Automatic annotation (TrEMBL):
Originating species: Phacelia campanularia
PAS domain residues: 20-89, 274-296
Lineage: superkingdom: Eukaryota
Protein name in the entry: Putative LOV domain-containing protein
Coiled-coil stretches noted in the UniProt entry, renumbered to this chain: none
One BP annotation, GO: response to blue light
GO CC field: nucleus
InterPro entries in the record: PAC, PAS, PAS-assoc_C, PAS-like_dom_sf
Record keywords, A-Z: Chromophore, Flavoprotein, FMN, Photoreceptor protein, Receptor, Sensory transduction
Source lineage: Eukaryota, Viridiplantae, Streptophyta, Embryophyta, Tracheophyta
Keyword set includes Zinc: no
């Protein structure tokens, strides 16, 4: 967990200046920021407004996935719409039933927006704003429709004028009088006949939608400003078309579920650059993700690395063949380790080679059987998982 928190810290420190958290803390809205490049697509920042709305401390939220706040009555179709928007890297506004820390459900408007790198068009983060939807009550003792009225929070008397103000559809004066009588009758019967309309979907008002859009703009404004100070600019809209080398957010998330040490490289770009590096690879080598992406894997080589082994790797890649070698590599601190390396081509849904996966296992020259799977089996399981993720992603992108 400690290494995960370090990666989360790095998610912000690399992209924005050190004052970005203080600036975000000053915003009163409820929002979170997530990083799709980290395993599990975790929350890397939660606002004070979010903590107040959900009842969690920030330390309880950072590092967790947003599904933590869903519950038994959260609409699965809505969740799938969110996942689809993440896959397509597009904004989304949707009504969602979420749960506070104490287990109480409430309806909110969830407004999500991707944050793009201005340099290469990659999705860096997702901002998610939560705006509570005005509570709706259903009235069990009258003929009023379940979503007909907004009950005043203070429980005060609702006049005909208030009814006109709360209802979304236009009603005649006779209907207003009838509604007023129903309200008075229900008030006389007591509050037991009224209950929160949790089971029926709530739709956000235009005011609530405008409020969420304003909150998104405020967050993007802060992120944009503090990215300018580091020179690694971000923006709320894709400023350039992403290069062929860049993998989408959905593939990022799928690969993040694979816990072994591996990288994904693109053979169609100059110098065969790394386009994805797993958390386990970063932990093994000591490098940050920003220090790895875009580089050829030869940076792991050093003074005593065998050139013949490096040539063997190059030849296998040129002929689109898998290979397994034992090679001396070096960490960031220049300590060496024997790397039991397996490289394999990864084909997309059309059968063409899209990437090469390189699986790294430390060769500690001990009895592998005592540690469970052999290194060969671990490597093959990673390759299989990566192939499934890539093919699934390419099928979705062409559908």
């Amino acid at each position: 967990m400690e290494s995960q928190l370090g990666i989360i810290e790095q998610s912000f420190n690399v992209r924005y200046s050190g004052w970005v958290r203080e600036a975000l803390d000053e915003l009163t809205d409820s929002f979170t920021i997530t990083d799709p490049s980290i395993s599990g697509h975790p929350i890397v920042y939660a606002s004070n407004g979010f903590s107040k709305m959900f009842g969690y401390d920030k330390d309880e939220v950072v590092g967790r996935n947003g599904r933590t706040f869903q519950g038994p009555k959260t609409n699965r179709r809505s969740v799938m719409e969110i996942r689809e928007a993440i896959r397509q890297e597009r904004p989304l506004q949707i009504s969602l039933l979420n749960y506070r820390k104490d287990g109480t459900p409430f309806w909110m408007l969830f407004h999500m927006c991707p944050v793009f790198s201005k340099e290469d068009g990659r999705v860096i983060h997702f901002v998610g704003v939560q705006v509570p939807i005005s509570r709706r009550r259903r009235w069990s003792s009258s003929g009023v429709s379940r979503n007909g009225i907004n009950l005043c929070e203070d429980g005060g008397e609702i006049t005909n004028e208030a009814i006109f103000r709360c209802c979304r559809r236009e009603v005649c004066s006779d209907s207003a009088i009838q509604l007023g009588r129903s309200v008075a009758l229900d008030s006389a019967l007591g509050s037991d006949n009224r209950e929160l309309d949790v089971d029926e979907a709530c739709e956000a008002s235009e005011l609530e939608k405008r409020k969420s859009a304003a909150a998104i703009n405020n967050v993007l404004s802060v992120l944009t400003h503090y990215s300018e100070l580091t020179g690694r600019l971000v923006c709320g809209k894709r400023c350039c078309l992403p290069e062929k080398s860049l993998i989408n957010a959905a593939l990022n998330i799928s690969l993040g579920r694979i816990k072994q040490s591996f990288v994904l490289s693109n053979p169609f770009l100059p110098d065969f650059p790394i386009v994805y590096a797993s958390d386990a690879f970063l932990k093994l080598t000591g490098y940050g993700r920003h220090e790895v992406l875009g580089r050829n894997c030869r940076f792991l080589s050093g003074l005593d690395t065998d050139p013949a082994t490096s040539f063997q790797i190059t030849e296998c890649i040129n002929f689109e063949q898998a290979c397994t070698v034992r090679i001396l590599n070096y960490r960031k601190d220049r300590t060496s380790f024997w790397n039991f390396l397996h490289i394999s081509p990864v084909r997309n849904a059309t059968g063409k080679v899209a990437y090469f996966v390189e699986v790294h296992v430390i060769d500690i020259c001990t009895n592998w059987e005592k540690q469970g799977l052999s290194p060969e089996m671990r490597q093959l399981s990673v390759v299989a998982a990566v192939k499934v993720a890539v093919r699934s992603s390419s099928m979705c992108s062409t559908s």
